[in-house]
Amino acid sequence: MSRPFIPTRVRHRAVKAVVALALAGAAVAALFRAPHLSAQPSAPTIVVETTQGTFAFETYPREAPLSVAHIAKLAYEGFYDGQRIHRAVPNFVVQFGDPQTRQPELQPVWGKGVAASSGDPIGLAEVTLKRTHVAMTVGLAHMGEPAKADSQLYIMLEARPELDGQYAVIGKVIEGLDVPAKLAVGDQIRRVYVRE
User: Fold this and answer.
1) What is the predicted pLDDT for the residue at 159?
2) Rounded Cα distance, 62 and 126, in Å
3) What are residue 157's phi and psi, to 5 degrees?
4) Residue 83 DSSP SS3
5) Which pTM does this prediction carry?
6) How far apart are alpha carbons 40 and 43 in whole angstroms?
7) What is the pLDDT at residue 121?
8) Per-residue model confidence (pLDDT) at position 41
């Protein structure tokens, strides 16, 4: 009896899917500590130093474990260091996380397209109604597909309940609450790091 023909492309996709699931499982497992057999998620605080001041946000690994792990990893790697704010709308939102913003000549495309990210989307939409879009919420931007969210973060300057259930909320600004509203397009992100 012969084996059914499976195109190489399909086999490669299947292998990639299995590997992605294994890595996702490992990332989730890494977020949880195991002392005394109780799973407590690690909730790192992310610190963002900008030309307008410093702010920090708490993270929500219970609701968005893969997203929090992904952003923390990018911060550890220095991914955000030297980038610039690419979107700032008064009384609405401030957004960053596009590596193209290190190049001023690319300003017309800042925040747009596949090059506007780390190139490693999270792959799972961790959208929940438990965490809502109140002022100082930190969420993951995407271009229409929440599972393809990657490195772009936004900070809500005011409550926007109409966005609830459409984006993964990964945290909330808890220090330097006045800083996000001061940020404008072109302001530099000097450094982003994890404080545990």
Assistant:
1) 97
2) 10
3) -90, -20
4) coil
5) 0.79
6) 9
7) 94
8) 60
Closest CA relative to residue 189, chosen from 108, 70, 79, 39: 79
DSSP class of 188: B
**Which of 3.40.50.1820, 2.40.100.10, 3.40.50.970, 3.40.50.150 would CATH assign to domain 40-195?**
2.40.100.10
Give the pLDDT confidence of 61-119 residue by residue, as tens digits.
Answer: 999 999 999 999 999 999 999 999 999 999 999 999 999 999 999 999 999 999 999 99
CA atoms within 13 A on the CB side of 74: 27
The token pair at 144 is 């229409």
Span 41-58, pLDDT tens digits: 679 999 999 999 999 999
Handedness of CA 113, 118, 123, 128 (dihedral sign): negative
